[in-house]
Automatic annotation (TrEMBL):
It comes from Nitratireductor indicus C115. The keyword Signal applies. The lineage of its organism: Bacteria, Pseudomonadati, Pseudomonadota, Alphaproteobacteria, Hyphomicrobiales. Residues 1-22 form the signal peptide. Residues 45-256 form the Outer membrane protein beta-barrel domain. It comes from the Bacteria. Pfam families: OMP_b-brl (PF13505). This is Porin, opacity type.
Length: 283
């Protein structure tokens, strides 16, 4: 009997650790989740940069008034009864700098092609008889301006703006042909001179690429008055009292460097998703 108990006790001691391990809960190894990606503050938008621009426009001009000197018994000053200037095209170019997201400035030069002038006068001719005349000429101009603009924010790639410019215009009048009804034609040599000018602008630019903008807008330009034509046959010099010009403009602006900040794409937010939870496995 004692012998059997010893055998049973030895067997129990042999198998007891195995039975205890079998009853334990199996736990998978702990895998730590990777830490979330570090937050990197986006670099500030790149402001500033030189740009070049080119423009095409169609403009309509109007004279603020005219006068000319006459000589003789009833000499003095007189003016055209009617004046009309036809529309014309112009080409422009410039260089500028984007100071920040809302402010830029540039220097521009525009050449206005000839705008035809038609006028008429009335008075007395030789012998005191009344007569009328028709007058034809044309003017062209070189306009140089220093401009500043305020960009009013960007909406779906469109940036409206307002601006102003100041500078000068070199106005070139062609010879004036004064044709008297039933009589001869008198030619007055046209005058050329520099004059003060200013401009007011409004428009919008559209982002075509990171460096290229389409610019469409309106510009009002005022040119001070000046000499219009020279003396001939007892009349002149003649003067215009200033020219007002309305311009419909379109052009391109190419910005060097990192690109236009108003064209920068919206930052992409990358979300972090922790790994899926794995339930414990029992065996």
């Amino acid at each position: 009997m004692l012998k059997h108990l010893k055998v049973f006790g030895a067997a129990f001691m042999l198998f007891a650790p195995t039975l205890g391990n079998a009853a334990d809960l199996y736990e998978p190894p702990i895998v730590e989740a990777p830490p979330p990606p570090p937050f990197i503050e986006p670099a500030p938008a790149s402001f500033g940069g030189w740009y070049l621009r080119g423009d095409l426009d169609y403009h309509w001009s109007s004279l603020r008034g005219t006068e000319y000197i006459t000589y003789g018994g009833s000499g003095g000053t007189d003016r055209f009864d009617t004046t009309k200037l036809k529309g014309a095209f112009s080409l422009g170019a410039g260089v500028g700098y984007q100071i920040n997201r809302h402010l830029r400035a540039d220097l521009t030069g525009d050449y206005w092609f000839k705008s035809d002038f038609e006028g008429s006068t009335s008075g007395t001719c030789g012998g005191g008889s009344p007569c009328v005349s028709t007058d034809k000429s044309a003017y062209s101009a070189l306009l140089l301006l220093a401009n500043a603009y305020v960009d009013l924010g960007t909406y779906h790639g469109i940036t409206p703006y307002v601006g102003a410019g100041i500078g000068g215009a070199y106005v070139m009048w062609d010879d004036l042909e004064n044709a008297i009804s039933g009589g001869s034609t008198v030619v007055h040599k046209g005058s050329k001179n520099w004059r003060f000018a200013y401009a007011l602008m409004a428009g919008a630019s559209y982002c075509l690429t990171q460096n290229l903008n389409l610019d469409v807008g309106y510009r009002f330009t005022h040119i001070n008055g000046g000499r219009m034509f020279e003396y001939a046959s007892g009349v002149a010099p003649g003067f215009d009292k200033g020219i007002n010009v309305h311009e419909a403009r379109a052009g391109l602006r190419y910005q060097f460097g990192p690109g236009n900040p108003n064209c920068a794409p919206a930052p992409q937010v990358v979300s972090y998703e922790p790994p899926a939870f794995e339930p414990p496995v029992y065996k």
